[in-house]
């Protein structure tokens, strides 16, 4: 079902930030939970193992509306240790994909947000200063009803002329700042650029290990979730888990899959340097989220590890939620579909078989 999105792609990021959320998210009242919490998510009782991953819930008002509408594990958008600008508008465009999206394809963008819904999003992980987001995140976390828990997501930034040690120090500072808000679960985005290199951080196993160990030293027993991209190479994924799987408490995957995005005239669709390629999410990436979930589930057993698996990618209805649960996801999240279907949590609670 496609209804008015709670984040409006026709408006700027700032407009959405100041005036959103929209549609059904605009006017909610606190959740009256009727389902007894029967699930545990990283030590917290939750009514359903379902939520919205980092990104669409861009400030506390969005997180609170998600809680009110029964998304029991909402993630407050990825923040940074300092203010960071957003890419120019547009930041979201629809893309037409036939079937599954293989990596490195070229896609045509449009403004037609139809089912099956896939989009590209290009924000550059903007952030306000901690002076804004710390109290806002704290307030959102307190809004959780019994059976709900808010996750705080962040990532590190390489300071200008900074070294790798400075980069890691920024991850540690971010963890400290997020923990100070009182959120009960911290998520670090490792599916971000490995600054100073051409690849994503989660593909640099040794640096990811250093980052994760430094964060764990800082936050102690607070559960740490890492956000990972789709890993093509199974052997490398196993190596990653051998290095990191016992240090982290949860692994969430996938993030977007990169593609070249053109307009209907064959020109770059997103204006500006470095935006020819952009991450695609929604229906067309479900195959990759499911594949990662299956692998993580299998490898967790083989390696005798305990991390919680959070399956993400193309979840648009109760049947997709069920597929992820059968593939081994302890919890499931939806970004793109939830943006256009504010009733998705309710639908899953009513229709899913794997709750
Ligand atoms: C509007 C939007 C913004 C996003 N921003 C972030 C972000 O800041 N950090 C992050 O880790 N993932 C971000 N993502 C990725 C999602 O968390 C998710 O991994 C991806 O969209 C796949 O899920 P989906 O197919 O349900 O959309 C964003 C996604 C969307 C749609």
Task: Give a description of the structure.
It is built from ten helices and 15 strands. The protein has 355 residues and is of the alpha/beta class. The strands form three sheets. An eight-stranded parallel beta barrel has the order 3-4-8-9-10-11-14-15, surrounded by six helices. α2 packs parallel to α3 and α5 (205-219) runs parallel beside α6. It is globular and about 45 Å long. Bound molecules: flavin mononucleotide. Flavin mononucleotide binds at residues 53-56, 77-78, 92, 121, 123, 125, 153, 189, 227, 255-256, 281-282, 285, 312-315, 334-337. Flavin mononucleotide binds next to β4, β13 and α9.
What small molecules are bound in this structure?
A: flavin mononucleotide
Q: Mean of the pLDDT scores?
A: 96
Secondary structure tally, helices: 10
Structural class, by secondary structure, is alpha/beta
Residues in β-strands, percent: 15-25%
* Radius of gyration using CA atoms only: 19 Å
How far apart lie the N and C ends?
Answer: 21 Å
**Helix-strand string:** HEEEHEEEEHEHEHEHEEEHEHEHH
Number of DSSP strand runs: 15
Taken from the alpha-carbon principal axes, the silhouette is globular
Unreliable stretches: none
- Helix fraction by DSSP (H/I, runs of at least 4): 25-40%
Major sheet size, sense and barrel closure:
8 strands, parallel, barrel
Q: Tell me the strand order in the biggest sheet.
A: 3-4-8-9-10-11-14-15
